[in-house]
Amino acid sequence: MKKSELKKILKPIVKECIQEALLEEGLLSNVISEVVKGLGTTRQPIVEQRQNDDEMRKLQLQEKQNRSQRINETKQKMLDAINKDAYQGVDIFEGTTPMSKGGSLGDGNSPQGPLSGMSSNDPGVDITKFMGNANLWKAIAKG
């Protein structure tokens, strides 16, 4: 048998064996994972640093106070700008309270709840005295 004939016979067999070893037995995935591990060793690990919880709370509280202070300063500047020349210094909204619920355009006849016309600051009816007189309730129950 000549060398070229042997090569023609063995080449497809060897090719099939290599493909089988690489794909079916997982050799290719093992090689790839080893290469990736080798490349990953040069990277620095990610380290997360956390501040103390008390420090975080103090910073958040301080930030909230600063924000509210800036808002109040802005409101005061706006009020000062409005009140300087308008209405000769008279506060036309003195003694008024904001609306509990505002409408929107196109509402038309929207359904309303049973307490929709009541203010949220309304104390309502005092019912503490109703349970105070037990004899009255017994008499009502007997008829």
Q: What's the short story on this structure?
A:
With 143 residues, the protein is mainly α.
Structural features:
mainly alpha; 0% strand; 143 residues; 4 helices; 55% helix; elongated
Give the helices and strands, then pairings.
Layout: H1 3-24, H2 27-40, H3 53-85, H4 134-142
Report on this structure.
- The chain has 143 residues and is mostly helical.
- The protein has a domain of 33 residues.
- Helix content is 55%, strand content 0%.
- It has four helices and no strands.
- The chain is elongated and about 120 Å long.
- The N and C termini lie far apart (124 Å).
Report on the biggest sheet.
none
- Proportion of beta-strand residues: under 5%
> What is the number of strand segments?
0
Low-confidence stretches: none
**Rg calculated over all Cα atoms:** 42 Å
Q: Helix content range of the residues, please?
A: 40-55%
Average of pLDDT: 76
Briefly note the structural class of the backbone. mainly alpha
Shape assignment: elongated
Order of helices and strands: HHHH
Query: Tally the helices: what do you get?
Result: 4
- Quote the distance from N terminus to C terminus: 124 Å
